[in-house]
Design brief:
By secondary structure, the protein is an alpha/beta fold. It is 36% helix and 17% strand. It has two domains: 148 residues, TPP-binding domain (Rossmann fold, 3-Layer(aba) Sandwich); 86 residues, SIR2/SIRT2 'Small Domain' (2-Layer Sandwich), CATH 3.30.1600. It has eleven helices and nine strands. The relative contact order is 0.19.
């Protein structure tokens, strides 16, 4: 990890792109893993906006544990390592494909949630907002679907199929990627676009990309270095920061 640590120490701007591998260290299943959500026969409908408007119970049944059980999880070693880098002034921000809110729970301040977040929900009928905690309370009280007083279903601010990515977050992440001297790609195989295009922006602008992921990616041959173990990365960052 010495090459990565040296690059981070010398860089004027460092950003991170995180994926599911970062959160599996906290015990959260990978959507695309062997036990992930996409093995569910209803997976194609669970995060489909047309299906949500037709029958929101499909989403709420499929995600009752996966999304509304997120409150029981705590940040893992990579979340804590990135928070440490931010505290030291060495990390400008985190672009994440995850929807588990663990970067914020770890205390990171600048997080661009590329696929949205369940932190807020909005009624599909009247537009009223509800917090994650308020929706959890409705579900814990036995409601099959979290509904607004007007009768409309609360939808999380997660990007469903058929919706656009959060524009502000993606534009900010693109700008940071272009500016970055170093991008840390952590726990993602870079298969889901447009998020997977961010490291290419860094490379095109002359920056370096370091990849830490258990599986190979299409960008490995362009990376300054590749590592297979996120725990090794987290320990190296935390030890170097002490």
């Amino acid at each position: 990890m010495q090459r990565l640590l040296k690059a981070v120490a010398e860089a004027k701007s460092v950003v991170a792109l995180t994926g599911a591998g970062v959160s599996t260290l906290s015990g959260i299943p990978d959507f695309r893993g062997p036990q992930g959500l996409y093995k569910n026969p209803d997976a194609g409908r669970i995060f489909d906006i047309d299906w949500f408007d037709r029958d929101p119970s499909v989403y709420y049944r499929g995600c009752r544990e996966l999304v509304y059980g997120l409150k029981k999880f705590t940040p893992g070693p990579v979340h804590l390592a990135l928070k440490k880098l931010e505290d030291l002034g060495r990390l400008d921000g985190i672009a994440t494909q995850n929807i588990d809110m663990l970067h914020q729970k770890a205390g990171s301040k600048t997080v661009w949630e590329l696929h949205g977040s369940p932190l807020w929900h909005h009624c599909r009928h009247c537009g009223k907002s509800a917090t994650f905690e308020e929706v959890c309370a409705l579900l814990d009280a036995g409601e099959e679907v979290a509904r607004c007083k007007c009768g409309g279903a609360f939808k999380p601010d997660i990007t469903f199929f058929g919706e656009s990515l959060p524009e502000d977050a993606f534009i900010a992440a693109q700008s940071a990627a272009i500016k970055a001297d170093v991008m840390l790609v952590l726990g993602t195989s870079l298969t889901v676009f447009p998020a997977a295009g961010l490291p290419r922006l860094t490379l095109q602008a002359g920056g370096k990309v370091f990849i830490v992921n258990a599986q190979p990616t299409d960008l490995d041959r362009y990376a300054a270095a590749c590592y297979p173990d996120l725990l090794d990365f987290a320990h190296a960052i935390l030890q170097s920061a002490d």
